[in-house]
Amino acid sequence: MPKLLPDEQDSLSSMRDLMNNADCLIDQSQVEQALDRMAADITASLGDKLPVFYCVMNGGLITTGHLLTRLGFPLEVDYLHATRYRGDTRGGELFWRVSPEIPMAGRHVVIVDDILDEGTTLAAILDYCHQAGAASISTAVLVDKRHDRKAVAGLKADYCGLEVADRYVFGFGMDYKGYWRNAPGIFAPRGQ
Ligand SMILES: O=P(O)(O)OC[C@H]1O[C@H](OP(=O)(O)OP(=O)(O)O)[C@H](O)[C@@H]1O
Ligand code: HPA
Questions:
Q1: For the Phosphoribosyltransferase domain, which residue ranges apply (predicted)?
Q2: How does pLDDT run across 34-61, given as a tens digit for each residue?
Q3: Which of 50, 53, 147, 162 is most deeply buried (CB count within 10 A of its CB)?
């Protein structure tokens, strides 16, 4: 097998170190229970509405997949990609990479993402959904970060699995500099 380039080897070592030294804030079974609760609430509200679920890529990928397999009613799935962290641990300007394909007009829309942090991303997506003429708009996030820096005061998701402390977190879709979206729980670098 070809060897890694030196900078790839550095990334491999530093990402292994990161995980070896991370604090597990929420373990996999707590995440699974939170997803069960979200699925039950979503089913009760939207189970007879033929909703369209829009995954916010990339972070929303894992939450969307786990949530959708818990929903036993007819629904459609699409995605959009709006990003503002782009491999960094601090957010910048929001950049729309991909707009959704399934028209939102007249539909019951559910936006699914991994995290509501400052809320700039969710607020912009909500504006988009309103302008697109959705019949109703619901938001579902796996975690809401606890702090008072929300872009819109009091911004909350309609369905929220868990709250996390005000630390940069990774796992279950959330990345640390592009890595560890695959971690099966929610982690934070130790000391940060
Ligand atoms: O509430 P906010 O402070 O706006 O942050 C939340 C957003 O940030 C992350 O996406 P990111 O911009 O990292 O894009 P990515 O998922 O493609 O990595 C995350 O997946 C949310 O979409
Ligand atoms: O804490 C975070 N972790 C990963 N991605 C994020 N996007 C916003 N906040 C975060």
A1: 27-159
A2: 999 999 999 999 999 999 999 999 999 9
A3: 53
Is 179 close to ligand 2, i.e. is its CB under 6 Å away?
A: no
Question: Which value does ipTM take for this structure?
Answer: 0.98
- What gap in Å lies between CA 171 and CA 188, rounded to an integer? 9
pLDDT grade for 66, boundaries at 50, 70 and 90? very high
Backbone angles phi, psi at 76, to 5 degrees: -115, 160
Ligand 1 contact, 59 CB (< 6 A): yes
Which pLDDT score is estimated for 87? 79
188 is written with which tokens? 């934070």
User: Quick check: CB of 53 below 6 Å from ligand 2?
Assistant: no
Q: Kindly list the distances between the CA atom of residue 66 and the CA atoms of 45, 74, 81, 119, in Å, as whole numbers in the listed order.
A: 19, 16, 19, 22
82 band by pLDDT with thresholds 50, 70 and 90: very high
The domains located in the chain, with CATH, are 25-189 (3.40.50.2020)
* 121 within ligand 1 shell (Cβ under 6 A): yes
Q: State which ligand 2 atom lies nearest to the alpha carbon of 176.
A: 4
Could you give the CA distance from residue 57 to residue 79 in angstroms, rounded to a whole number?
Answer: 7
Best residue among 79, 115, 120 to mutate for probing ligand 1's pocket (most ligand atoms within 8 Å of CB) is 115
